[in-house]
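Support request from a user on the community tier.

User writes: "When I paste my structure tokens into the form, the page sometimes reloads and wipes my input. The last time it worked, I copied everything first. Here is what I submitted, just in case something in the input itself triggers the reload:"
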């Protein structure tokens, strides 16, 4: 059945992996179904603590923001359409695309082991692509995946998963994390500036709304 001609195009959320040096897009991962909810937590970075009460209104930087979401992956439509990859592997490819975000590559592991075996004293930690969480044009956010879990809920005859729920925890990377010269910082600043513009569109309240006349 075709959709109504006047219906708006469905925008999907997802993850984009880019090269942190060149900004080249490495991979785009579109969520099959948009999560019903996003849980966002912001922890203020202030000077007001048990050891410093002299400047309680000062902030040391942007808040630490974390995002939690559950994404569902289902192979039913692909199986009905006779997709050969799904018939052979189920949803393993979709799961692997998400899981390998938090893996160093096998090439990096082999290279580091080779350096260690040859007597290299200092081995630089392995760098991953910059991960962007995209949730419409106002939310293009540099993030780091902090926790990741998969619940596989159904399997085909070869025990390939065909339905699963993926739970992810994301830590927003701000200018404090990346430094102002990093590509991700410009994206973070755009995210915060969009938030400030949206705040300006909110209807201003009045003291009478609060049941008072003066402060």
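"...and here is what came back when it finally went through:"
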């Amino acid at each position: 059945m075709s959709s109504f001609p006047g219906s708006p195009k469905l925008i999907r959320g997802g993850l984009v992996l880019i090269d942190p040096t060149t900004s080249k897009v490495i991979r785009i991962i579109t969520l099959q179904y948009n999560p019903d909810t996003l849980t966002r937590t912001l922890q203020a970075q202030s000077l007001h603590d048990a050891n410093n009460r002299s400047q309680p209104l000062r902030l040391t930087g942007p808040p630490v923001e974390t995002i939690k979401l559950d994404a569902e992956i289902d192979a039913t439509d692909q199986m009905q359409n006779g997709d050969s990859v799904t018939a052979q592997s189920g949803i393993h490819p979709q799961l692997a695309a998400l899981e390998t975000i938090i893996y160093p590559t096998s090439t990096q592991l082999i290279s580091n082991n080779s350096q260690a075996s040859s007597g290299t004293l200092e081995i630089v930690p392995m760098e991953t692509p910059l991960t962007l969480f995209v949730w419409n044009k106002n939310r293009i956010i540099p993030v780091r995946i902090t926790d990741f879990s998969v619940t596989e809920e159904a399997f085909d005859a070869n025990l390939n998963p065909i339905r699963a729920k993926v739970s992810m925890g994301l830590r927003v990377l701000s200018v404090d994390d990346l430094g102002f010269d990093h590509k991700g910082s410009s994206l973070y600043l755009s995210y915060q500036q969009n938030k400030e513009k949206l705040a300006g569109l909110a209807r201003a309240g009045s003291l009478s709304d609060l049941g008072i006349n003066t402060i």
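Agent notes: The reload is a front-end session timeout and is unrelated to the input. The chain has a mean pLDDT of 90. The two ends are 60 Å apart (CA to CA). Escalated to web team.
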